[in-house]
Amino acid sequence: MLTEERFAKIIALLEQTGSVTIQQLMTELDASESTVRRDLISLDANGQLTKVHGGAVLKGGSYSTKDDNVTNRKLLYCEEKRKIAKYAAGLITQKDFVYVDAGTTTEFMIECIAERQAVFVTNAVTHAKRLAERGCTVYLLGGEFKAVTEAIVGEEAVATLEKYNFTKGFWGANGIHTKAGYSTPEVKEAMVKRKSMEKCRDCYILSDESKFGRISSVTFADFDKAKIITTGLSDINYMSYKNIINI
Q1: Helix ranges, the chain (H)
Q2: Which of 21, 66, 151, 203 suits 93 as a labelling partner, its CA being 20 to 30 A distant?
Q3: Cα 146 vs. chain centroid, distance in angstroms?
């Protein structure tokens, strides 16, 4: 495949999904890792995409309407996610009743949790398993299983949340926007995020810089509903907001 053909294929994939991993591109392009890395460096230099750790994201893409597969997302912004997750985990105390949303950054948080006396509720099967393995008391919501994000979603999960009153909660978001708030592509998942935030005293959104300024299909909370834990934030439009913790 010619260089120009690979470039066109990479951009086409990004326009479909918003992000791609190096492994995914190696398969799609039938190319070596070194070739894919060179292509991403060239496209980044030309301003056609943004190269990140483990792959690339669409340059200037402000709207997203589909969830990227959780396996792909686990490979993106790993160092940033670990730093954010470590800070978030340090906020948990022994008296807390904690909600942990499905997501890759919240999953990183679990390995950093030192407080075993807190009680946890989650809508992520993987999160529940890892919390239990660490000796934590954990409750898993019931409902429809969404394979793309490995989350329990839908009306049954929302109904279960009605009985809970969380002291702290940690969520992911596909989009963070001052006017559109926190958003995600799918209605059933947005329902669970919205209800769990309504039932929580102190809400935290865990996000790398790539989610800022983006808008996804369904808003699940207003911008001022939560504090945002992020790192390396360089967007001057968000610098002055007091609910942003830029570590």
Answers
A1: 3-17, 22-29, 33-45, 70-73, 78-89, 104-110, 125-133, 155-161, 187-198
A2: 151
A3: 15
Report yes or no on whether pTM surpasses 0.70: yes
Per-residue pLDDT of the chain (247 residues; tens, 9 = 90+): 788 889 988 988 887 666 788 999 999 999 999 999 999 999 988 878 888 778 887 765 555 655 665 555 666 789 999 999 999 999 999 999 999 999 999 999 999 999 999 999 999 999 999 999 999 999 999 999 998 888 999 999 999 999 999 999 999 999 998 988 999 988 999 999 999 999 999 999 999 988 898 888 889 999 999 999 999 998 888 889 999 999 9
* Class of the CATH domain delimited by 73-246: alpha beta
Q: Are 3-61 and 73-246 in the same CATH fold? A: no
Is residue 114 exposed (0-12), middle (13-18) or buried (19+ Cβ within 10 Å)?
A: exposed
